[in-house]
Amino acid sequence: MNLKIGIAGISGRIGQRLVGVIEKDKNTTVSCGLVSQHSSFTLEGIEINSECTRADIWIDFSTPNAFEKVLVHCIDNKVPLLSGTTGLSKKHYNDLENASAHIPILWASNFALSINLIRHLLSNYTKLVDTKVKIAETHHVHKADKPSGTAITLAKTIKPHGMIKRLDEDNFAMDDIEIVSIREGEVAGIHTIELDNDSENLSITHTAKDPQIFAQGALDVAKWLIKQDKGFYTMGDYIESLS
Length: 243
What we know:
- By secondary structure, the chain is of the alpha/beta class.
- The protein has helices at about 15-25, 65-75, 90-100, 115-130, 150-160, 210-225, 235-240, and strands spanning about 5-10, 30-35, 45-50, 55-60, 80-85, 105, 130-140, 165, 170-175, 175-185, 190-195, 200-205, 230-235.
- The strands form 2 sheets. The chain has a 7-stranded parallel sheet with strand order 3-2-1-4-5-6-13, with helices on both faces. A 6-stranded mixed sheet has the order 8-9-10-7-11-12, with helices on one face.
- The longest helix has 16 residues, at about 115-130.
């Protein structure tokens, strides 16, 4: 089976790398790409436009506005959706939940397996030990949302019902968790979690050397998601399927 994949945000950093990893996979093809109405982006041999067209599955690394368009298309056409778009609102997450009654959906802020294993460690450790938590994230200057979706996800692993509070341009808090956002150069993504208590100090740092790690991860998950029944899935579900 040749899996035909639509990419929302195909002109972006992850979108372009997705094209590369899909083209190297003999079982997958980029069938179409979604860009903004005013974009002049083109790729030879790939249909690029500002409206969604037919695909077996859509992978979304776009913007909140484009995400809405892709989600409606996927529901109307009974097509699975895998999304890594960050900066979504509470309404968007509710829309994802509602859509999962019709199609398979997986949203994640990060498709690196290691980040999701770190989440598992954080969840267990902070349940067992009363500890102070600080998260620092560094990304390229083109990334608009602060803090990063991954930083929010890491914090919510510890405080599931926590809400982000902006302290200033680069500093945030989720309950008693400090979050610092830095934008510099072309950094693919660095996340450092500091855990400090009376007994010990732990520091965990994840450094993405290249955005391709997220593109390859998304493709791997998409090939799994296409086989699932309708429902809302997480990276935890995918990782569990590997064991």
